[in-house]
Write a structure and sequence with these properties.
The protein is an alpha/beta fold and about 550 residues long. The N and C termini lie far apart (about 70 Å).
Length: about 550
């Protein structure tokens, strides 16, 4: 089995749906089921043909699971998810992620510190008709969206269920079903600006609300009306309706359809709600996220925003006024702080970047979008790592280094202070690169071996865009490699090299200006930089600087 080995934590009603989805996923292998109720764990474990455990700790200790689906009540989510993250386990957590936004932030911070994925389950983001509706709305076919309606109502006796215990579930129907409603609205229309919540009569005599209506306005001006109840059933064919200036769209339990203002008839675009399909798609997305082939559909900021909006909705129950939702700014800020929690306050790590454990980042260093810095790498102060760059494990980077976008730096490379590596440059480190063993029976181990060679880029050197840098060589101090060059041998200090393979064509100054050409100028001479005045001695292409700059001296002070 080469897929994701998953533990199922919690064996209640929702776990049944996950068990089916996991059993049908080609990317997953369930290695255990855990629940404090032994009989419940054993029943699901029997269907999945895996062992049962009395706690998630026992499951993790006894198996090789590196991911988990958490199906326990909301009050337990923080302690379980934080503990799993601390053990290096990726987590798909049932909604709501947490009862309070403070707990949600702590959970996300723990996951970031551990370098694992923590995502919230939100099945409606995976329902094919909801995904299709989002595409139709985004296309502009319905014009300017003015109204949104959502209804999750059914007769359900909640008197003996934990969902109606505020200490366990965090509230009533608002947090239980409303979490889905809020996430659907955010998925379709983006961030929410304000809301108002009105509670209906408590028909079941519960400690929590069993019927509510929520009015919501998005930052784009769309107004939403959400009805939630455990005590009534509106018996409508549609659970989502979208009204725009150009048409109307319904997402239904049996089919989904739209009608543009100019159409005579409805167009059916979906076959209705398929719970099994949604759970399979959700599990596949989680497994692929763990394997690194796609991002979680519910990003950390989306999960946290969901908790914050529900938190605001409960506060609105105590007031007749519309309540502002501050989730947008606080969410992004909180997630950013979580990502940077292991570094100094002035280090910047973009939310989409992946910085693995045991990476050291110096003060004022910035890691930009979709960059990946692997374990045991050390990057100094005042550095920039551009978007989509990959820095392998064990790389050493000095201070004030610029690594532009889409650069690949492999194990064994050292960049000294002041180095610049331009976009799409690739370093290599293997003298005998092969993917598989000689008989092609297996993948060749990627760990360093006798064929691995190192590369040293000395202080102040610049490597142009689209270069390929070979291994077992040194690029000298303040040398410059022209764009598109292929470097196969050492580059001396202050040399300008270009071509494939790269060859020396001249001498460059510390400031980057060309000082002399080797093919036209005398082989032995002294030369001054025409830009900053620094002087060099050149003898048979060996370059020696005669007037190194003095720290703090203004540029041009040495000009003749």
């Amino acid at each position: 089995m080469t897929g994701v080995k998953i533990g199922l934590i919690g064996a209640g009603a929702i776990a049944q749906a996950y068990a089916r989805a996991l059993s049908e996923s080609p990317s997953c292998e369930v290695v255990g089921v855990a629940d404090v109720r032994a009989e419940a764990a054993e029943a699901i474990a029997a269907t999945l043909r895996c062992p049962a455990f009395g706690s998630f700790e026992e499951l993790v200790d006894a198996t090789d699971c590196h991911a988990a689906v958490v199906c326990t009540p909301p009050a337990t989510h923080p302690s379980i998810c934080i503990a799993l993250a601390g053990r290096g386990v990726h987590v798909l957590c049932e909604k709501p992620l947490a009862i309070t936004s403070n707990d949600a932030r702590e959970m996300l911070a723990a996951a970031v510190r551990a370098g694992v994925i923590l995502t919230m389950a939100s099945k409606f983001r995976f329902v094919e008709d909801v995904v299709g509706a989002r595409s139709l709305i985004t296309s502009g076919m319905l014009g300017d969206i003015l109204l949104f309606e959502n209804s999750f109502t059914a007769h359900v006796d909640m008197s003996s269920r934990w969902n109606s215990d505020p200490e366990v579930g965090g509230g009533g129907v608002l947090i239980d079903n409303g979490t889905h409603s809020i996430d659907i609205m955010r998925y379709l229309f983006g961030p929410l600006a304000e809301l108002q919540t009105v509670e209906g009569k408590r028909h079941q005599g519960l400690k929590v609300e069993d019927t509510v209506r929520v009015f919501v306005r998005t930052t784009g001006g769309t107004v939403g009306n959400i009805d939630l109840s455990w005590s009534i059933s509106k018996q409508q064919p549609n659970y989502i309706s979208v009204y725009g200036t150009g048409g109307t769209l319904h997402v239904g339990w049996g089919e989904s359809k739209y009608k543009r203002r100019t159409d005579d008839d409805w167009t059916v675009f979906g076959k209705g709600y398929d719970k099994a399909q949604a759970f399979r798609a959700q599990i596949d997305n989680f497994a692929n996220s763990v394997l690194g082939s796609e991002p979680p559909r519910v990003a950390p900021e989306e999960a946290l925003a969901s908790v914050e909006v529900i938190e605001t909705a409960y506060a609105a129950l105590q007031s007749s006024e519309w309540q502002p939702i501050h989730a947008r700014a606080s969410t992004l800020h909180a997630v950013q702080l979580a990502r940077e929690a292991r570094f100094d306050a002035d280090v910047r790590v973009h939310p989409t970047a992946l910085v693995e454990e045991d990476v050291q980042l110096g003060s004022r260093t910035a890691i930009w979008s979709h960059a990946h810095v692997r374990h045991d790498t050390v990057i100094g102060e005042d550095c920039i790592v551009g978007g989509s760059s990959i820095i392998a494990y064990g790389v050493r980077v000095g201070n004030r280094v610029k690594i532009n976008s889409s650069v690949y730096i492999c194990h064994g490379v050292t960049l000294e202070d002041g180095v610049m590596v331009s976009a799409q440059t690739v370093f290599t480190n293997d003298r005998f690169p092969r993917a598989a063993t000689p008989d092609l029976s297996g993948l060749r181990n990627s760990d360093p071996d006798e064929s691995t060679r190192t590369t040293l880029v000395r202080e102040g050197a610049t490597i142009g865009a689209n270069c390929t840098i070979g291994c077992d060589l040194t690029i000298g101090r303040f040398a410059m490699v022209g764009m598109g060059s292929i470097v196969t041998r050492a580059v001396p200090d202050f040399h300008l090299v270009m071509g494939s393979p790269a060859r020396s064509i001249g001498c460059v100054c510390r400031c980057g200006e060309l000082v002399a050409r080797f093919d036209t100028d005398p082989p032995t001479r002294e030369a001054a930089c025409p830009s900053c005045g620094l002087q060099y001695e050149i003898q048979d292409q060996k370059v020696r600087e005669l007037t190194p700059p003095v720290a703090g001296e203004p540029r041009g002070a040495r000009e003749a």
